[in-house]
# Entry
Amino acid sequence: MTNSLPPKDRVKIPRQEMPTEPPEVRQHDFHEVNLGLTTIQAHAEAARCLECRNPQCVSGCPVGVKIKEFVALVHDGDYLGAAAKIREDNVLPAVTGRVCPQEDQCEGACILGTRFSALGIGYLERFVADYERTSGKIGLPKRAPSTGQRVAIIGSGPAGLSAAGDLVTKGHDVVVFEALHEPGGVLIYGIPEFRLPKEIVRQEIDNLRAMGISFETNVVIGKTYTIDELLGEEGFDAVFIATGAGLPKFLGVPGEHLAGVYSANEFLTRVNLMHANQFPDYDEPVYDCRERVVAVVGAGNTAMDAVRTARRLGASKAMLLYRRSEAEMPARQEEIHHAREEGIEFVTLTAPLEFLGDEKGRLRAARCQRMELGEPDASGRRSPRPIPDSEYEIELDMAIIALGTGANPLVQRATPNLATNERGYIVADAETLETSRPGVFAGGDIVTGGATVILAMGAGRQAAGAIDAYLKSHPPRQDSPAS
Amino acid sequence: MFEIIDARWLAADVKRFEILAPRIAVKQQPGQFVIVRVHDHGERIPLTIAGSDPTSGTITLVVQGIGKTTRLLNSLEAGQAVLDVVGPLGNPSEIRKFGTVVVIGGGVGTAIAWPTARALHEAGNRVLSILGARTRSLIILEDELRAVSDTLFVTTDDGSYGQQGFVTTKLQELIDTEERLDHVLAIGPIPMMRSVADVTRPHGIPTTVSLNSIMVDGTGMCGGCRVLVGNQARFACVDGPEFDASEVDFDVLAQRNAMYRSAEQDALKRFEQSPARDLDRVEHACQLAARHPEVNP
# Structure
């Protein structure tokens, strides 16, 4: 069954709206906000696709999902076929269908978007991934015959998982090392339950296990093993470094050491990985937000995640402090919209100069300065500049700094001759992602600095292709334990 | 899953564990730590490694039962297991020939100072050790520390054993009587380390302390362990845990470590009222790990 509607009728179908949990309910719990399209909605949305001969959406996708094909399968009602089609290029469809910034990628390139609304590609991806998951019939890609060659992947976040999926399909033995006690990286410790339920991440990881990938948790490469040991006595033929976002950045203003000031990484890890929202059933605590005033500094997706989490933990007032205006906020429109619906206050054109504490070293206020916008800076956004004599205090119980991350040094410090740039990120070839060490590849945030899940997955795919080529030109070692 | 091979009490509330963790045992160097999570609802706590036996694949941890997690740990016996142990984390102690070194262990800090004292002794230093505690029953690892020291001094606050006074009383005596002291290492409660820093600072004696700030991941990712050293924020997990004592802001360390006090007291009270739930979770984790070794290899 093909789409018999002529294009002029297809464009008349409105873009389907994502059903959501009502804001007055969801701001008190951690249930997922977006509920997913219904089957009727999915069918209507799929019918909107113009089936371009040269689909721009695919070139907008960092992993090259065959969007036109999978959407046609949705239209035909072959949801499992659609899921299998996505899985050819994307090992985590249920994840990316939820957290990708589609408006900047596939949907941003969709031709419908120029005169109408872009096709809801992310919604459809999520729909088929959820259908597949609940059907219990997951169509995993077939595995090529074993090559006997072994690849170590450092980090189980999106870059590592994506590379692992491609490499195991090509017949290599893949071991993924994770420093924390649970695999998933930022998908587990960083992105909150209400945006990406952990059960979904766990299922995707179980799928990768079923494909033959081994996961070893509680292993810190650079500490428990070095890369030289992996390539030596541990018998690996190649290594992919995908350690992800590293050390949290702070403002560097006085008072950031006060109790009650967190990095977004710490705050989110305590809640997402350690379940501090379920204290005392879980042991890890987090600052008690109930009836308190919480400010998050920053306006990216992580800032939105943090401030919405604080709201759910019971903050009476949860606000963002941002030094530019709303137009410059780097977060996705959907996140900004959801945050506003949940009563998050946006304090823009404001920069903290200092955090002030009480006699016990606990945060009590932030001294802030009002800003105005000047000329565009290197990022193309209008740069903020301070307004003289505009300082004022905001009373706060808790502040969360969400300004991104710098490079984590653990692997680099323990790996001689691994080239890094002046900011400490690993230098990798733009095409092959190979580092200055032969057989050692790197990709994702540890190369580019903080980016998105899907860009990291794109790097993982790119590395997997290059590693496969490298292994073909370096036949299995005689002493390899796997041979 | 990490099996407890041996567990015995060293003092009231202080227990010594030998835990099977072969990879860490091979790698561990004095001054490094592990992060432990006892069961699947547990918190992650840093514990400095007190030694290891690469042959048997065990690491030694000495645990003082202060809060819920350490009390739970101390209720475990040989044959049981903890769910997660990761490491060795942090930078090793600086081991080289300084000359005359004073190693100060306060309370359970003695367990951490002991392997570093041994390494310093093996590196050819003259090691003068001071072991301090409130009272005699809290003195631990005296024989072990004596074996790696040229001279061992014991102080107790109440005078029940050794010299009456604080470790700093003895340290001041050494400063006054010794020809020169080239280095001081002090590991123990925050007030003790602060006092040691105050005693050595006017004399310009290089002094190192090991900071026990609150951590989550232990790999630099969360920044919760940040301390002020020379007025700069440093991460104890990746920049430490040892720092120049003269530059450490001990007030900030104490304040940050007190951040969760009421939650900690609440958790401890609940545990002491009904420890069964947590002990069940330890058993459950062990059984699960035994059935599915790939869950936690």
Notes: Chain A has three domains: 7-135, 150-246+406-472, 250-401.
